[in-house]
Write a structure and sequence with these properties.
Number of helices: 7
Mean pLDDT: 93
CATH class of the largest domain: Alpha Beta
Order of helices and strands: EEEHHEEEHEEEEEEEHEHEEHEHEE
Number of strands: 19
CATH topology of the largest domain: Fumarylacetoacetate hydrolase, domain 2
Helix content: 10-25%
CATH architecture of the largest domain: Alpha-Beta Complex
Number of domains: 2
Radius of gyration: 19 Å
Largest sheet: 12 strands, mixed
Distance between the termini: 36 Å
């Protein structure tokens, strides 16, 4: 199933995408949070399936970010070897690397089709198409054998990144660790994490072989990123195992799995006002946004 949050005439509701149409699931899930459906999934599965087969589509609805306020929004850094290399770093063998992850605040999350704000503090805005995992169970100290059992589904994230903060953001004397913290700050701008258009449940994604699941990015219609998830340094299960040793994962947590090579910084073409950036993951769909001067 493809499940998310839709909006029509100012009303938001839990919905499913069926044959490019929108099916309202309000009769099964009260409220406007997908987290409620995730937490009661086993008891609501049959009712949702019945509604999907009814063919009752809502006309004129738009999709919103499926999880605008996840308990935790975690993202892996440097999880595709070719992207590590294009960023100017050595890519050691997998056995010598541990996953590196960071967090983004909920204020970064942006709806599909919404404008990515280009503000005066941005001088090097860039795109990063990513597969993202949505957790369905509370898990601590997961193992490789049971990690995927805690996954509810998968969505698409664009980890918009500011590569170079301008001088107005840096009224200071430089310290040895400023570059690292500047990198983090460059991830935290409002609206810098488009998400969606929905979540494809894990049972549907499990029908695809890992090599068939491809992460792609398109700038103004031109393909700029493309790699199968088998090119990831750390698999979804490995990431969950590592992260769950550090913190407890909860239903509704989102983990973005890193971006393939082909980002704007490496290509010498960063985002500009009016650019359209589309991110696609096989089995999920296309997340499309446009950059607008704010």
């Amino acid at each position: 199933m493809k499940l998310g949050i839709a909006e029509k005439d100012g009303r938001r509701f839990v919905a499913a995408s069926v044959n490019e149409g929108v099916v309202d699931l309000t009769s099964v899930v009260a409220g406007t949070s997908l987290r409620g459906l995730i937490e009661t999934w086993s008891s609501n599965l049959d009712e949702c399936a019945a509604l999907l087969s009814s063919g009752a589509h809502i006309e004129g609805a738009r999709w919103c970010a499926p999880l605008p306020d996840p308990p935790k929004f975690l993202l892996l850094a440097g999880n595709f070897r070719a992207h590590v290399v294009e960023s100017g770093y050595e890519a050691a063998p997998e056995k010598n690397l541990t996953p590196q992850f960071f967090m983004k605040p909920a204020t970064t999350i942006l709806d599909p089709e919404a404008d990515i704000p280009l503000v005066s503090e941005n001088v090097g805005l860039d795109y990063e198409a990513e597969l993202a995992v949505v957790m369905g169970k509370r898990v601590k100290n997961a193992t490789l054998e049971n990690a995927l059992e805690a996954v509810w589904g998968y969505t698409v994230v664009n980890d918009i990144s500011e590569r170079k903060l301008n001088s107005r953001m840096q009224p200071r004397e430089k310290r040895s660790n400023d570059d690292f913290f500047d990198w983090l700050v460059g991830k935290w701008f409002d609206g810098s994490a488009p998400m969606g258009p929905w979540v494809t449940t894990s049972d549907e994604m499990s029908g695809l072989a890992a090599g068939e699941i491809v992460v792609s990015g398109y700038l103004n219609g031109e393909e700029v990123q493309r790699a199968p998830i088998t090119a990831m340094i750390h698999s979804v299960a490995e990431a969950i195992v590592y992260i769950s040793r550090v913190l407890t994962l909860e239903p509704g947590d989102v983990i973005a799995m890193g971006t393939p090579a082909g980002v704007g910084l490496a290509r010498g073409r960063l985002l500009q006002d009016g650019d359209e950036i589309s991110c696609e993951v096989t089995g999920i769909g296309v997340l499309r946004n446009r950059v607008r001067l704010s």
